[in-house]
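ok new one. same drill as before - C-alpha coordinates go in, u give me an amino acid for every spot. 307 of them this time. try not to just spam alanines like last time pls lmao
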Protein backbone atom coordinates (compact mmCIF):
# COMPACT_ATOMS: atom_id res chain seq x y z
CA UNK A 1 0.00 0.00 0.00
CA UNK A 2 2.79 2.38 0.96
CA UNK A 3 4.65 1.61 -2.33
CA UNK A 4 1.48 2.29 -4.35
CA UNK A 5 1.01 5.67 -2.67
CA UNK A 6 4.66 6.54 -3.23
CA UNK A 7 4.39 5.63 -6.92
CA UNK A 8 1.25 7.75 -7.35
CA UNK A 9 2.95 10.68 -5.59
CA UNK A 10 6.01 10.46 -7.83
CA UNK A 11 3.85 10.24 -10.96
CA UNK A 12 1.86 13.30 -9.88
CA UNK A 13 5.09 15.23 -9.24
CA UNK A 14 6.38 14.38 -12.71
CA UNK A 15 3.13 15.49 -14.35
CA UNK A 16 3.21 18.79 -12.46
CA UNK A 17 6.82 19.32 -13.54
CA UNK A 18 5.89 18.90 -17.22
CA UNK A 19 3.10 21.48 -16.83
CA UNK A 20 4.88 24.10 -14.70
CA UNK A 21 8.54 24.13 -15.77
CA UNK A 22 9.47 27.51 -17.32
CA UNK A 23 10.25 27.49 -21.04
CA UNK A 24 13.67 28.99 -20.36
CA UNK A 25 14.81 26.03 -18.23
CA UNK A 26 17.20 23.59 -19.92
CA UNK A 27 15.47 20.26 -20.44
CA UNK A 28 18.12 17.96 -21.90
CA UNK A 29 16.37 15.03 -20.25
CA UNK A 30 13.50 14.33 -17.89
CA UNK A 31 13.34 12.03 -14.91
CA UNK A 32 11.31 9.50 -16.87
CA UNK A 33 13.19 6.90 -18.91
CA UNK A 34 12.34 7.09 -22.65
CA UNK A 35 11.82 4.09 -24.92
CA UNK A 36 15.03 2.55 -26.22
CA UNK A 37 14.61 3.71 -29.82
CA UNK A 38 14.30 7.37 -28.79
CA UNK A 39 16.96 6.91 -26.12
CA UNK A 40 19.52 5.54 -28.57
CA UNK A 41 18.83 8.45 -30.92
CA UNK A 42 19.38 10.86 -28.02
CA UNK A 43 22.80 9.39 -27.18
CA UNK A 44 23.84 9.30 -30.84
CA UNK A 45 22.87 12.96 -31.12
CA UNK A 46 24.90 13.75 -27.98
CA UNK A 47 27.92 12.00 -29.54
CA UNK A 48 27.46 13.93 -32.77
CA UNK A 49 27.46 17.25 -30.91
CA UNK A 50 30.47 16.13 -28.87
CA UNK A 51 32.32 15.32 -32.13
CA UNK A 52 31.45 18.77 -33.49
CA UNK A 53 32.89 20.44 -30.37
CA UNK A 54 36.07 18.38 -30.58
CA UNK A 55 36.61 19.18 -34.26
CA UNK A 56 35.94 22.88 -33.77
CA UNK A 57 38.89 25.10 -34.65
CA UNK A 58 38.56 26.58 -31.15
CA UNK A 59 38.43 23.22 -29.36
CA UNK A 60 40.90 21.10 -27.37
CA UNK A 61 42.53 19.62 -30.45
CA UNK A 62 43.54 23.06 -31.69
CA UNK A 63 45.66 23.73 -28.59
CA UNK A 64 49.37 23.90 -29.42
CA UNK A 65 50.95 25.81 -26.55
CA UNK A 66 50.76 26.98 -22.96
CA UNK A 67 53.13 29.76 -21.91
CA UNK A 68 53.26 31.27 -18.42
CA UNK A 69 53.36 35.02 -17.90
CA UNK A 70 55.53 36.94 -15.46
CA UNK A 71 54.73 40.19 -13.70
CA UNK A 72 55.76 43.09 -15.93
CA UNK A 73 56.72 42.94 -19.62
CA UNK A 74 56.32 39.69 -21.62
CA UNK A 75 57.50 39.72 -25.24
CA UNK A 76 55.35 37.55 -27.53
CA UNK A 77 56.75 35.95 -30.68
CA UNK A 78 59.19 33.37 -31.96
CA UNK A 79 62.43 35.27 -31.53
CA UNK A 80 65.25 34.34 -29.16
CA UNK A 81 64.24 37.28 -26.97
CA UNK A 82 60.57 36.23 -26.81
CA UNK A 83 59.26 35.38 -23.35
CA UNK A 84 56.05 33.85 -24.74
CA UNK A 85 57.00 31.57 -27.63
CA UNK A 86 54.49 31.09 -30.45
CA UNK A 87 55.88 28.99 -33.27
CA UNK A 88 54.63 30.38 -36.56
CA UNK A 89 52.98 33.69 -37.29
CA UNK A 90 54.78 37.01 -36.73
CA UNK A 91 58.29 37.00 -35.31
CA UNK A 92 57.14 39.75 -32.96
CA UNK A 93 53.46 39.89 -31.98
CA UNK A 94 53.94 42.63 -29.40
CA UNK A 95 54.06 42.77 -25.60
CA UNK A 96 51.80 41.61 -22.79
CA UNK A 97 52.18 43.72 -19.67
CA UNK A 98 51.02 42.16 -16.40
CA UNK A 99 50.32 44.51 -13.48
CA UNK A 100 48.65 42.53 -10.72
CA UNK A 101 45.24 41.49 -12.03
CA UNK A 102 45.37 43.82 -15.03
CA UNK A 103 46.81 42.69 -18.35
CA UNK A 104 47.50 44.89 -21.34
CA UNK A 105 48.53 43.93 -24.87
CA UNK A 106 50.58 46.35 -26.95
CA UNK A 107 50.67 44.96 -30.53
CA UNK A 108 53.56 45.30 -32.90
CA UNK A 109 52.20 47.81 -35.48
CA UNK A 110 54.10 46.03 -38.27
CA UNK A 111 52.52 42.62 -37.56
CA UNK A 112 49.31 41.34 -39.15
CA UNK A 113 47.33 40.92 -35.94
CA UNK A 114 43.65 41.12 -35.04
CA UNK A 115 42.02 41.43 -31.63
CA UNK A 116 38.60 39.81 -31.36
CA UNK A 117 38.47 39.86 -35.16
CA UNK A 118 39.18 43.59 -35.54
CA UNK A 119 42.33 45.58 -36.32
CA UNK A 120 44.78 45.46 -33.43
CA UNK A 121 45.25 48.39 -31.11
CA UNK A 122 46.53 48.59 -27.55
CA UNK A 123 43.97 46.82 -25.40
CA UNK A 124 43.27 45.56 -21.88
CA UNK A 125 43.18 41.77 -22.07
CA UNK A 126 40.33 39.91 -20.41
CA UNK A 127 41.48 36.59 -18.93
CA UNK A 128 39.18 33.57 -18.77
CA UNK A 129 38.54 34.08 -15.05
CA UNK A 130 37.35 37.64 -15.70
CA UNK A 131 34.81 37.00 -18.44
CA UNK A 132 34.92 36.15 -22.14
CA UNK A 133 38.66 36.14 -22.90
CA UNK A 134 40.15 38.52 -25.44
CA UNK A 135 41.33 36.63 -28.56
CA UNK A 136 44.52 37.84 -30.25
CA UNK A 137 45.02 36.22 -33.67
CA UNK A 138 47.22 36.16 -36.73
CA UNK A 139 46.37 33.85 -39.62
CA UNK A 140 45.60 30.36 -38.29
CA UNK A 141 47.19 31.12 -34.88
CA UNK A 142 45.59 32.74 -31.86
CA UNK A 143 46.08 33.12 -28.14
CA UNK A 144 44.18 34.23 -25.05
CA UNK A 145 45.00 34.53 -21.37
CA UNK A 146 43.90 31.96 -18.78
CA UNK A 147 44.26 32.03 -15.01
CA UNK A 148 45.41 28.90 -13.18
CA UNK A 149 46.90 30.18 -9.90
CA UNK A 150 48.79 32.62 -12.14
CA UNK A 151 48.32 33.95 -15.67
CA UNK A 152 49.27 32.00 -18.78
CA UNK A 153 48.80 32.27 -22.54
CA UNK A 154 46.91 29.44 -24.26
CA UNK A 155 47.90 29.12 -27.93
CA UNK A 156 45.67 27.58 -30.60
CA UNK A 157 46.18 26.68 -34.24
CA UNK A 158 43.25 26.01 -36.56
CA UNK A 159 45.59 23.79 -38.59
CA UNK A 160 47.12 21.86 -35.70
CA UNK A 161 48.32 18.34 -36.56
CA UNK A 162 46.14 16.83 -33.80
CA UNK A 163 43.03 18.52 -35.16
CA UNK A 164 43.71 17.59 -38.78
CA UNK A 165 44.45 13.96 -37.88
CA UNK A 166 41.44 13.49 -35.61
CA UNK A 167 39.01 10.79 -36.74
CA UNK A 168 36.91 10.39 -33.60
CA UNK A 169 36.78 8.79 -30.16
CA UNK A 170 35.68 5.20 -29.56
CA UNK A 171 32.69 4.68 -27.30
CA UNK A 172 31.24 1.74 -25.47
CA UNK A 173 28.01 0.29 -26.80
CA UNK A 174 24.97 2.29 -25.73
CA UNK A 175 23.36 0.67 -22.71
CA UNK A 176 20.25 2.21 -21.24
CA UNK A 177 20.99 0.55 -17.89
CA UNK A 178 23.78 3.12 -17.39
CA UNK A 179 21.19 5.88 -17.22
CA UNK A 180 20.96 6.10 -13.44
CA UNK A 181 18.32 7.79 -11.31
CA UNK A 182 19.89 8.12 -7.87
CA UNK A 183 19.19 9.73 -4.54
CA UNK A 184 20.68 13.19 -4.10
CA UNK A 185 21.76 14.60 -0.75
CA UNK A 186 22.26 18.37 -0.75
CA UNK A 187 25.52 19.62 0.74
CA UNK A 188 25.58 22.31 3.44
CA UNK A 189 25.73 25.79 1.96
CA UNK A 190 29.30 26.91 1.27
CA UNK A 191 30.84 23.42 1.31
CA UNK A 192 33.89 23.02 -0.95
CA UNK A 193 36.34 20.31 -1.90
CA UNK A 194 40.01 20.75 -2.77
CA UNK A 195 40.58 19.62 -6.36
CA UNK A 196 44.04 19.30 -7.88
CA UNK A 197 44.79 19.81 -11.56
CA UNK A 198 47.43 18.21 -13.77
CA UNK A 199 49.84 21.05 -12.94
CA UNK A 200 49.70 20.16 -9.25
CA UNK A 201 47.74 23.29 -8.39
CA UNK A 202 44.91 23.06 -5.83
CA UNK A 203 41.60 24.87 -6.01
CA UNK A 204 38.55 24.83 -3.75
CA UNK A 205 35.54 23.83 -5.83
CA UNK A 206 31.93 24.28 -4.67
CA UNK A 207 30.15 21.07 -3.69
CA UNK A 208 26.44 20.94 -4.47
CA UNK A 209 25.82 17.56 -2.91
CA UNK A 210 26.29 13.78 -3.15
CA UNK A 211 24.69 11.31 -5.54
CA UNK A 212 23.94 7.86 -4.13
CA UNK A 213 23.00 5.00 -6.43
CA UNK A 214 23.07 1.22 -6.73
CA UNK A 215 24.62 -0.91 -9.44
CA UNK A 216 24.68 -4.71 -9.46
CA UNK A 217 23.49 -4.79 -5.87
CA UNK A 218 26.21 -2.49 -4.53
CA UNK A 219 25.93 1.11 -3.33
CA UNK A 220 28.10 3.90 -4.76
CA UNK A 221 28.54 7.61 -4.09
CA UNK A 222 29.79 10.54 -6.18
CA UNK A 223 30.39 14.14 -5.11
CA UNK A 224 28.71 16.64 -7.43
CA UNK A 225 30.25 20.03 -8.15
CA UNK A 226 28.03 23.01 -8.81
CA UNK A 227 26.32 26.14 -7.52
CA UNK A 228 22.79 27.50 -7.12
CA UNK A 229 22.96 28.99 -10.62
CA UNK A 230 24.04 25.69 -12.24
CA UNK A 231 21.76 24.06 -14.81
CA UNK A 232 23.45 20.69 -14.36
CA UNK A 233 26.01 19.21 -11.97
CA UNK A 234 29.55 18.20 -12.81
CA UNK A 235 31.18 14.92 -11.84
CA UNK A 236 34.88 14.07 -12.06
CA UNK A 237 35.16 10.32 -11.63
CA UNK A 238 37.45 7.35 -12.13
CA UNK A 239 36.61 3.66 -12.10
CA UNK A 240 38.18 0.25 -12.67
CA UNK A 241 38.49 0.88 -16.42
CA UNK A 242 40.65 3.99 -15.82
CA UNK A 243 44.16 3.54 -17.18
CA UNK A 244 43.13 0.42 -19.07
CA UNK A 245 40.12 0.88 -21.32
CA UNK A 246 39.54 4.54 -20.49
CA UNK A 247 41.72 7.59 -19.80
CA UNK A 248 43.95 7.05 -16.79
CA UNK A 249 43.11 10.24 -14.92
CA UNK A 250 39.38 9.57 -15.15
CA UNK A 251 36.49 11.03 -17.07
CA UNK A 252 33.93 13.83 -16.72
CA UNK A 253 30.14 13.71 -16.68
CA UNK A 254 27.33 16.25 -16.42
CA UNK A 255 24.00 15.36 -14.87
CA UNK A 256 20.79 15.55 -16.89
CA UNK A 257 19.48 18.71 -15.30
CA UNK A 258 19.33 19.48 -11.58
CA UNK A 259 17.98 17.38 -8.69
CA UNK A 260 14.20 17.12 -8.43
CA UNK A 261 12.50 15.87 -5.29
CA UNK A 262 15.73 14.39 -3.98
CA UNK A 263 16.47 12.50 -7.21
CA UNK A 264 19.07 13.14 -9.92
CA UNK A 265 19.63 11.60 -13.36
CA UNK A 266 23.16 10.83 -14.54
CA UNK A 267 23.84 8.99 -17.78
CA UNK A 268 27.24 7.35 -17.96
CA UNK A 269 26.74 6.89 -21.71
CA UNK A 270 27.62 10.61 -21.78
CA UNK A 271 30.88 10.21 -19.82
CA UNK A 272 33.62 11.97 -21.75
CA UNK A 273 37.39 12.37 -21.81
CA UNK A 274 38.94 15.51 -20.26
CA UNK A 275 40.95 17.86 -22.48
CA UNK A 276 44.22 16.36 -21.19
CA UNK A 277 43.39 13.13 -23.00
CA UNK A 278 43.89 14.98 -26.29
CA UNK A 279 47.00 17.11 -25.76
CA UNK A 280 49.62 18.17 -23.23
CA UNK A 281 48.63 21.84 -23.09
CA UNK A 282 45.46 21.51 -21.02
CA UNK A 283 45.05 22.17 -17.30
CA UNK A 284 42.47 19.54 -16.34
CA UNK A 285 41.08 19.10 -12.84
CA UNK A 286 41.74 15.60 -11.51
CA UNK A 287 39.33 13.15 -9.95
CA UNK A 288 39.07 13.60 -6.17
CA UNK A 289 39.71 10.50 -4.10
CA UNK A 290 36.05 10.39 -3.03
CA UNK A 291 34.95 9.89 -6.66
CA UNK A 292 36.99 6.78 -7.42
CA UNK A 293 34.33 4.14 -8.03
CA UNK A 294 34.97 0.52 -7.10
CA UNK A 295 33.37 -0.78 -10.24
CA UNK A 296 33.98 -0.77 -13.99
CA UNK A 297 31.94 1.83 -15.86
CA UNK A 298 31.87 0.41 -19.38
CA UNK A 299 29.85 3.27 -20.80
CA UNK A 300 30.71 6.53 -22.53
CA UNK A 301 34.00 7.38 -24.17
CA UNK A 302 36.95 5.02 -24.22
CA UNK A 303 40.64 5.95 -24.13
CA UNK A 304 41.65 8.26 -27.00
CA UNK A 305 44.43 6.91 -29.20
CA UNK A 306 46.54 9.46 -31.06
CA UNK A 307 47.33 8.36 -34.61
Amino acid sequence: MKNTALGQSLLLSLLLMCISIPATMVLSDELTTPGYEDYEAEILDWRKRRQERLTSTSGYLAQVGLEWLEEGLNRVGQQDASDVRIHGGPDDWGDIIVAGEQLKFVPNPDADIKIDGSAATEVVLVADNQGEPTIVSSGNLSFYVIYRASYAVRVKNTQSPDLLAFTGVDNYQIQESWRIIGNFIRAPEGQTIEVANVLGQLENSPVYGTLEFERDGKSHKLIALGEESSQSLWFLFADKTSGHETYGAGRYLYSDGMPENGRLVVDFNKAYNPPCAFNEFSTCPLTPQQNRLRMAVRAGEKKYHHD
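Residues 60-165 form a domain with the Tumour Suppressor Smad4 fold (CATH 2.60.200.20). and btw Residues 1-35 have pLDDT under 50 and may be disordered.
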